[in-house]
Amino acid sequence: MLITLCQFYQANAQNGELRGKVTESTGEVLPGVTVLIKGSSAGTTTDANGNYKLSLSQSSGTAVFSSMGMISQEIAFNGAGEINVSLVSDSKTLNELVVVGYGTQKKVNLTGSVSVIDGERLKNRQVASTSLALQGAAPGVTVTQQSGVPGGDAGTIRIRGIGSINAGQNPLVLIDNVEMSLDAIDPNNIESISVLKDAAAAAVYGSRAANGVILITTKRGANGINVSYNAYVSDQSPTDLPNKVNALEHMKYWDVAQANSGLPAAFTQQIAAYETSGPDNYTLFNTDWKKLVLTGNGLMHNHNLNVSGGTDRIKIYASGSFLDQNGLTANTNYKRTDLRFNTDISLTKKLSASMDLVLNKSNRLWPGQSTPQSIIRQMLGFPATAPGRYDGGEWGEGWSNANPAAQAQDGGFSRAITNSRIIKGTLIYKPIEELELLATYSSNFYTTHGRNFTDQYKIYIADAANNTLLLARPWPALNSLSDNTSENTQNLFRVQATYSKAFGKHNFTALGGFTTEDFQTSNVNTYRQNLLSADRPYLDSGDPLGQTISGGISKYSIVSAYGRLNYNYNEKYLLEINGRMDASSRFRQENWWKLFPSVSAGWRLSQEGFWSGISHIVNDAKIRASYGTLGNQNLIRSGSADYYPTYSTFYSGTAYNYYFNNVVNAGYALTTAANPNIKWETSKILDLGADFGLLRNRMSITADYFRRDITDMLQLVPIPTYVGLASPFVNIGSMRNTGWELGIGWKDKIKDFGYQAQFNISDVKNKVLKNGGTPIINGANIQQEGYALDSYYGYQADGLFQTADEVKNAPFHYGNTAPGDIRYRDISGPDGVPDNKIDSYDRTILGNYFPRYEYSFNLAAQYKGLDVTAFFQGVGKKDNYLSGTGSQPFYSANFQGSMYEHQKDFWTPENTDAAYPRLTPSAIPNNYVTSSYWVRSASYLRIKNLVLGYTLPKTITGKIKIKSARIYLSGQNLITWSNFFPGFDPEQRDTGGEFYPIMKTYTVGININL
Amino acid sequence: MKRKILQIAALCLCLNLLVGCSEYLKEAPLDAPATGQFFNNQAEMNSALNAVYKSVYWNTGTTPYQSVFDGWTDIALLRAPDLGEGNFDVFNANAKNIWSLAYTTIQRANTMIEGMEAGKVNVPAAVYNRMQAEARGVRAFSYFYLVNMFGDVPLITKPLLPSDFYNQTRAPKADVIKFIYSELDAAAAGLDWAPADRGRMSKAVVLGLKARTAFYNKEYKTAADAAKQVIDGAGLGLNPKFQDLFTKAGQTPNAGKEIMFEVLYTDADANAITYLPLGSISRAAGGQSGRFPQQRLVDMFEAKDGKRIDESAVYDPKNPRLNRDSRLKYTVAIPGDTISMNLVTLVYDIYKSTTSFRNADGSWSTKANADYDNAFGPSKSGVGLLHAKYTMTAENAFSARVNFILMRYAEILLTYAESKIELNEIDASVFNAINLVRKRAGQPDAITGDQTKMRQLIRRERTVELAMEGFRWFDIRRWDIASIVMPQKVMGIAKDPAVVAASPGFKLTAVHDLNNIPTYAESESVRMVREIRFWYPKLNLLPVPQSERDINPGLTQNPEW
Questions:
Q1: Widest distance between CA atoms in chain B
Q2: I need a surface site. Which of A251, A763, B70, B474 has the fewest CB within 10 A?
Q3: Any chain A CB within 8 A of the CB of B89?
Q4: Three-class secondary structure assignment of A849-867
Q5: What digits encode the pLDDT tens for the residues A925-982?
Q6: Is A412 left (phi over 0), alpha (psi -120 to 50) or beta?
Q7: B370: which chain A residues are within 8 Å (Cβ-Cβ)?
Q8: A387: cis peptide before it, omega within 30°?
Q9: Hey, are the CB atoms on B99 and A722 less than 8 Å from each other?
Q10: CB nearest B165 (choices: A558, A651, A719)
Q11: Is the interface score ipTM higher than 0.90?
């Protein structure tokens, strides 16, 4: 294309030509330099020897020489001739600042492992939860999505593997140094994201940083006025859903299953009736549950209007965002408004202040009787023979009165409204050039109001005898309302001093600070049933009889002192020492305090004299190493924070109340054991890394090797149930994550054509080093020394039994094993050798779900107004386990299941090389115990994101007096390649076949700058 | 100057904060008492005791566990294959659930019994002793089930310290039984014959439990003595109507005080409900039948003349409902019966797609019959029969609050009688006990016979009186007949109402005859039949849960598991 362009310009030559050679200040020739005539469309690029030729259409003007990583030069000319130019490398690249813990640092001087994600890049990803936009964005950052439900579709973020078992695995997310949910912020407000991955980088966050830190900097005001409006509309649909057999097939296969278990056929008459008269949706059903449940209106739209303005004294950034996301089912919606005011004021030359205010509100609507997940689950699981909806619109009874379509449409509502108010004030005083004193206070106050109204829908049954429909019952028997509020406050106070000074070529920066942090949550939960009217879903219309009420409060606090010393000699030898002392209220006083030190060093080889020979190719080269420790105290028990892990408390509530004399007698019981002696969990992180800038810094390479050892792990090690209590936390065992990361980027611009490519790949291997002796087996998973955490654990399948003789001669497992059942390997026995029995001794490690070789490539190009981005993301190796409805026909944990299309390939004497075992009407454990049969590779590659944008030419935007306008089309999760079970998204782990799918979206959007 | 002021200010701030640190960091639970802060007074002890009682309600999905036990035997079945059907291994969820439910109760009782000593001085001695005796009684109740289902079990009598979590071993069954006896004797000393509130442990209950424990352990002398103490001292009697024991309205008066110990529910709490009826109720009545009786149970009910159906002159195989022990229709619903379940009255049928429903005004209409074709109803998943016990409760089944009886006086009488029969001390008191139970059912008095004849009678009487109350699983093991009654096909009613199924035989062997075990060689082909079941000697005991042994390898396993 470029050649064509050049020819095009040559064809227009009228006034002779401009020619010359472009070199770098070092004398090296510079190919690919763009040469443009200012104010015209004429232009060219230099060839491999740095030479250029440009036909002139004007007699005089200015030639502009520009290249990535170089400072552009403008040279006036008068007539044709030769202009030789020497370009100086752009020190801006060298001076690029990166946000690090409590400050910024020159990128080239970094000694820790930090990944930076540009805010602009996130804007390309139209996702409701910002966490999803980080998928594949930086090496070593793993984001997995388990559900696509509005208000619950956030991704789980893991940085460099799993950093803890029970002390939290989520990274610390700080938005302008205030802890809040990443998903609450509109990506439009994000200026940049820094991911701090090693101990040195994260050290100043000490106790909170063991799982890495994600620092988000929001946009702030700048001089002048800029107004921009960004909006998009998306259509969402599931990436994948399994298909179910129809009613007739369901019954036929069911009877095959019955016969296989020696049971009488259940559907003989019905099958005959279906075959003669067909389903009539009156007494014979062939309900298409997907059609009934899915609304087909997965619309999502997002709007952001922001204003940035300022003078030298005062700068303001104000932004308002609104997101509205529909789900797949009725009454499923998520709305979020995000208002942000960032204000910076220079009070005097030495004193400045900033005040940020964030008002964030989310409003999640789900159906009242059942969650969207459960509705989708029922939709996927229910047999087509169950009555769904009659032709007149009356609801059928589904299965045991549960009708997922009725639940979604007429089952009431479950609202969760979260109002969050974050206020942050900062005062910065610079008494002298070298010293900065800072004090900042922030408070995040948020309330959640959950109102769940379970409404009744009317179930009709066919009365064939009278050819009518009868109202069978409203369901459920009583309507009910729960009304719950919680109030949460998180206060953060920090004072800090920074002193920077250069003595000749010795540069020092010292930083010291002190923080306090406290959090308090309290709640009131109420419940009433039998409301007089569904039109007044408020407590007052409910019945006091049977009402319940409960409430409580919890607190924690952390105090820390931290310090950092940076030293570099001539920006060549770099050294950083960090330390943080932490105290947590979660521990008893004797274990409050602990020091977490770290050290890191770097060497910029490219600054050395010996480098000069290759410095024109490798412009920048740095090697770095860091080692340090971080602490963790963020205890999690059954998914919720545990604030008082050292106390065993007596709990009250319905589970403990008893009913002497027909009244509620309050009961109190101990439920968990406590361990007063627990102390900090420690992560020791080693990082070795190198950063290179090549070919005029158009190419960048970052490589890291890391080892993360977690010791004194705070774990809920299972205790025997004969104790009668849940496990206490103990400091036991250790775990290691080792891995490497490689990021290779290329960006260049040739005249109007800019293009960028980024390839990331990373690997992390998790291994439990010490476990305190006994392996911990938890269902299908095991925690065993020498293996990855939560490895899959079960029997080793060895195909299917083909004959009764094979069953008879095989090691005994169950009495009812028959041909078509899974055969297992007799690996061991009580004496350590095979004992001709399949039992607990034959279980073995079957794999694990850790994503290995995660990779992504991002390709982007811009030409004039057009821009295109393609983003691929994949996982090279990963195991995934399917159980429950996913593996067992006719099974579900909560209702009568049916069968998926792909499960038709089951064993029969005629279909002996079947993919699945013989059918049985209900789960026979032989086939559905955890085994390698149901563990499959879930490696995948998917087109995560594809964007095509067009920026209107200035000629048009100028006319309507706007600075710029861009429209774009984009798609998310467009195509997935995987060998996992059909119908199941490989990204969703251990679903048991019951899940809310991940979304595929198509978007159209605009960005306007006024 | 300015700088100096700021520095001083900052320094003061830091110091202030550091001094305040210890206050700032000191946190302890705010909304719940922690260990060491409880059991100060009677109210606190009482609330701990409430939680001890609550844990006696063993449930999975709001159905009392004991009501499911019979589904693992020859007289009933569960829709989903369970312990009866060869699906049995060391990972079995039932074994795991029962084990952990029992030990939850034991933990709560242990915590209470030890903890309450701290507040002893603040509580009147009589009240203190009663509360302690109740907790000990409930703890013994848990050990009773553990020892009978698992054999040797860890005997934990105090709150465990973390250092002892992993080193418990299984105490011999005999030691556990000895402990149960001594605990129950001690509890009896601290309790009155009548409970302090309905639903609490009383002297009658703890002695009844002692009788039951000894009885299951074949210590018939101890069993007879304990039962006799209850019979003589407690002043209990039988409810005039058998069927009233299993309905909410009938239970409330507890006429004759037959109900001794039960799981309580209340309408004062929306969550205090039971799905026991719902899970067995007719699909046509809007229930979710998933537990069904077997024909074997039906055939064990005597005919009206007091004779087993194979020996009766009044039994009619064409109309098995007629001329039967009156308890049959309150225990099993047979097609043709009029049943009232879930506030719906209908004629139970499985043979036709419609049946008769009673309207509000008393008239009858013909409407669709889900029991005929529902895949999970009695015709497709059961063998044509429905449970009538605990299902005709005159309540909305989705908010039923019928109490589940854990011990009643009829059981004490039958335990007494059987113990005396086993001791071959068949005196008038034995007949009195049996005949009290039979008389209420409208059955003629027992006829004098030798020990064998009396055994046959009492085993039949026990089965039909206590069906679906959680006894059969233990009885077929105690009588050593599980290996005979379990590996059989599940048998049902006639497939075709027009083809009469012949009466079963009971005399295949002397053991069959003695234990009233019906055999269906002649009628199998015309009956509704389900899968053949399995029996292995190891099934005499449940396996120690593998998950427990994975955690504490020091726990041994039962034979052959």
A1: 118
A2: B474
A3: yes
A4: CCCEEEEEEEEEEEECCEE
A5: 788 889 999 999 999 999 988 999 999 988 888 888 888 899 999 998 899 999 988 8
A6: left
A7: 461
A8: no
A9: yes
A10: A719
A11: yes
pLDDT of residue A996 exceeding 60: yes
Look-up: residue for tokens 């009874």? A397
- Residue A726: closest CA among B552, B100, B142, B116: B100
When pLDDT is cut at 50, 70 and 90, the band that residue A351 belongs to is: very high
Q: Decide if pLDDT at B5 tops 50.
A: no
Q: What is the pLDDT of residue B1?
A: 43
| Phi, psi of A466, rounded to the nearest 5 degrees | -115, 10
Contact A658 B17 (CB under 8 A): no
| Mean per-residue pLDDT, B499-506 | 93
Q: How far is residue A63's CA from residue A34's CA, in Å, rounded to a whole number?
A: 10
CA atoms in the 13 A half-sphere facing the CB of B10: 22
Q: Read off the pLDDT band of B511 (50, 70, 90).
A: very high
| Chain A CB within 8 Å of residue B264 CB | yes
Inter-chain CB proximity A721 and B28 less than 8 Å: no
Candidate from A432, A649, A661 with C-beta closest to B33: A649
Least Cα separation, residue B317 to chain A (angstroms) = 23
pLDDT of residue A306: 92
Confidence of residue A785 (pLDDT cuts 50, 70, 90): very high
Nearest CA distance, B43 vs chain A (angstrom): 10
All residues at 6 or more sequence positions from A256 whose CB lies less than 8 Å from its CB, including other chains: A908, A919
> Which of B 378-397 lie inside 8 A of A, CB atoms?
380-381, 396
Instruction: Give pLDDT tens digits for A200-255.
Output: 788 888 777 888 888 888 898 888 899 999 999 999 888 888 888 999 999 999 99
Interchain pair A719, B32: CB under 8 A: no
Buried b vs exposed e over B206-228: b needs ≥16 C-beta within 10 Å?
bbbbbbbbbbbbebbebbbbbbb
The distance of A629 to chain B (nearest Cα, Å) reads: 23
Verify whether the Cβ–Cβ distance A667 to B54 is below 8 Å. yes
Residues of A in contact with B551 (CB under 8 A): 718-720, 774, 776
Q: B326 CB contacts (<8 Å, ≥6 apart)?
A: B242, B441, B442, B443
If you count residue pairs, one on A and one on B, with CB atoms under 8 Å apart, how many are there? 292
Distance from the Cα of residue B296 to its chain's centroid: 20
Counting residues of chain A whose pLDDT is more than 90, the rounded percentage is 51
* Chain A residues within an 8 Å CB radius of B270: 478, 480, 527, 529, 546-548
Is B33 strand, coil or helix?
coil
Nearest to A161 by CA among A740, A672, A582: A740
**Which structure tokens are listed for B464?**
């039909």
Chain B, residues 348-367, CB within 8 A of chain A, namely: 353-354, 365-367
Q: Which residue of A369, A471, A644, A721 to mutate against B (max B Cβ within 10 Å)? A: A721
What pTM did the predictor assign?
A: 0.86
Q: Do A673 and B162 touch (CB under 8 A)?
A: yes
Highest mean pLDDT among A4-18, A529-543, B453-467: B453-467
Per-residue pLDDT reduced to its tens digit, A137-157: 888 888 888 888 888 888 888
Map B487-555 to HEC letters. Answer: CCEEEEEECCCCCCCCCCECCCCHHHHHCCCCECCCCHHHEEEEEECCCCHHHHCCCCCHHHHHHCCCC
DSSP letter (8 states) at residue B324: B
Chain B residue with minimum CA distance to A663? B268
The Cα A538–Cα A483 span in angstroms is 8
Does the pLDDT at position B31 exceed 70? Answer: yes
**Cα(B225)–Cα(B238) distance, integer angstroms:** 20
